[in-house]
Design goal:
131 residues; alpha+beta; 25% helix; globular; disordered C terminus
């Protein structure tokens, strides 16, 4: 099923150990036309911060409760690198995020995420077996 990004704004984002915040925007890859990051607003009235979350971090999406469940901890997200979400995301920022979270670089490879179909299936199966 296809979903509108506008519909996904306002979805809650939850880490393995608690709530993180709410989706307020998205960054789209202008070459592969894929959602690269969710912009998530976390914190309260006086300590708001916007962070980037890659869909690679999704553990599951609960469409009925409008919630993205991540395979990350609250602490990991809270201490993620700062980024100005009002500016385009440079490759340098993506590299910093990839190193911080341990993501593979997706650029320079085939497929939307720089993974072949076999690698994605293998990683998914390993993740299912580790639950």
């Amino acid at each position: 099923m296809l979903r509108s990004l506008k519909e996904l704004e306002g979805y809650s984002v939850t880490a393995t150990d608690g709530d993180i915040g709410t989706v307020v925007d998205f960054f789209i890859d202008d070459q592969r036309h894929a959602v690269r990051y969710l912009v998530v607003e976390m914190g309260g009235i006086f300590d708001k911060r916007r962070v980037l979350i890659s869909p690679v971090s999704f553990r599951e999406v609960d469409w009925s409760t409008h919630r993205f469940n991540l395979a990350l901890t609250v602490d990991k997200v809270q201490h993620s690198p700062d980024v100005d979400v009002d500016m385009p995301v440079s490759r340098q920022i993506e590299q910093e995020y990839s190193r911080y979270y341990g993501y593979r670089y997706y650029w320079g490879y085939t497929g939307v995420w720089g993974l072949t179909h076999i690698q994605v299936c293998s990683q998914t199966l390993r993740g299912e077996m580790n639950r």
